[in-house]
Structure formats: C-alpha cells, structure tokens
Amino acid sequence: MKLYIARHAETTWNLAGRYQGRRESALSARGIQQGFALADAFAQATPAPERIIASPMQRTRTTATFVAERLNLPLETDDALIEIAHGTWEGRLRDEIAANDPARYTTWRERPAEVSFEEGESLLDVMTRWKRFRAVLHIDVPTLIVTHDAIVRAALLDIAQRPLSDFWKIRVENAAYAVVDVDGESWTLVEESVSAHLAEQRAATESQAL
C-alpha cells in the first residue's frame, strides 16, 4: 500500500526566513500555486490517495485542502503531525537568531539532535510523537499525510532506520512528497523527495528558517 508524506506549501514566513513552529502564517502566492500543482500531481498519481491526514495548522490544512477538494476526499487532522515547537525562536528571523543565540543556532545546524528549544521541544520529542502516530496508523488505502519540515524528516529517518544526527541530510521541499511502501509492519522508503510536479514553482529552502 502506498503512503505519501508531503510538506506544506511555501508560506509568507518561509519566504521571509522567519521561524514558524507552532505559530501560524498564510501560504505565499507561490505556495498557492504549489498547492494546485500538488493537487494535479495526486489526481494523476497511481495510486491516487484515498485518505488524507494533515497537521491541524493553517498552512498544512490549506495545502491538504487543494488535494482533498480535487479528489473529493474528506480531510482528517491529527495533532501528532504538528510542527516542532521552536519555543522562543518562533516569530523571529533566522538571521536574528544566528546573531543573538549563536551557540544554540550553530548546534542546531551542525548537531540538531543535541538541541532542546527553550520553551519548546527537542528532535527526540518530535520523533516520539511521530512514532506514537505511526504505531496507531492503519494503512488500508493509499494515504497522503501533509505535515511540516521537522515531522517529514523525523518520519523518513524512522522509516529508513537512520539516526537523528542525519536530520539535515533528508531532502525536504515545500509541497514535495516522499513515497513509502507499506506492507503490514514493513515500511520501505521508495522516494525521498518527489518535486517534478512543482516545475518553476519550487521554493528555495536554503533561505528558510528551518
């Protein structure tokens, strides 16, 4: 059975280089076009999703709605798929964090598994949430999950049985998706990041606050 795991489309805060975490921001103009492209991709997919589950945050629900409406499917949400809590970094620009919290920022970029965000979470917390979600997720139809950068990375590391220290080695883009084969308890990562459907609408993640 196919499982697709997508990151939400580009937001205005992605574009600005601002940390989002548990805060809300709307899709950018490019993000809206990415949502249409993602819907087109899944309308043509073999197999197409028959179930869609999203993080309850605005950016993920909006992205997932493009697909749900195109495929005439209900949209489910699950709090376990919410983005990592960046704590005191949320709402602040990446360059500001790099200047004002340089030690933590450097550790986050170089050894992310060692960071616990002030008033927020650690990657271990995120992985625990994902594993709890995975343990109760019953895949009996082709399923699409629409979630956030940190959750996608944690999920793919878990599925591929790689350590959290490989967090930044996973390829994740706005409105791109991974493909997973699910056979009972056996999950196999088939494609890490499918982005061809985005064409000229791909976002430059290098400048985002991730």
Beta content comes to: 15-25%
What structural class is derived from the secondary structure elements? Answer: alpha/beta
CATH superfamily: Phosphoglycerate mutase-like
- Rg, please? 16 Å
Tally of helical segments: 7
The CATH class designation is Alpha Beta
Secondary-structure element order, N to C: EHHEHEHHHEHEE
Q: What's the assembly state of these chains?
A: single chain
Show unreliable segments: none
When the domains are counted, the total is: 1
Distance between the termini: 31 Å
* Morphology call: globular
Strand tally: 6
Name given to the CATH architecture: 3-Layer(aba) Sandwich
According to CATH, what is the topology?
A: Rossmann fold
- Average of the residue pLDDT scores: 97
Q: Give a short account of the largest sheet.
A: 6 strands, mixed
Strand arrangement in the largest pleated sheet: 3-2-4-1-5-6
Helix % is 25-40%
Descriptive overview:
This protein has helices spanning 12-16, 29-43, 58-71, 94-100, 102-110, 123-136, 149-160, and strands spanning 2-7, 51-54, 75-77, 143-147, 177-183, 186-194. With 210 residues, the protein is an alpha/beta fold. It has one domain (2-203): Rossmann fold. Strands 3-2-4-1-5-6 form a six-stranded mixed beta sheet, sandwiched between helices. A hairpin with a 2-residue loop joins strand 5 and strand 6 (186-194). Helix 2 (29-43) runs parallel beside helix 3 (58-71), helix 4 (94-100) crosses helix 5 and helix 6 (123-136) packs across helix 7. It is globular. The model has no long low-confidence stretch (mean pLDDT 97).
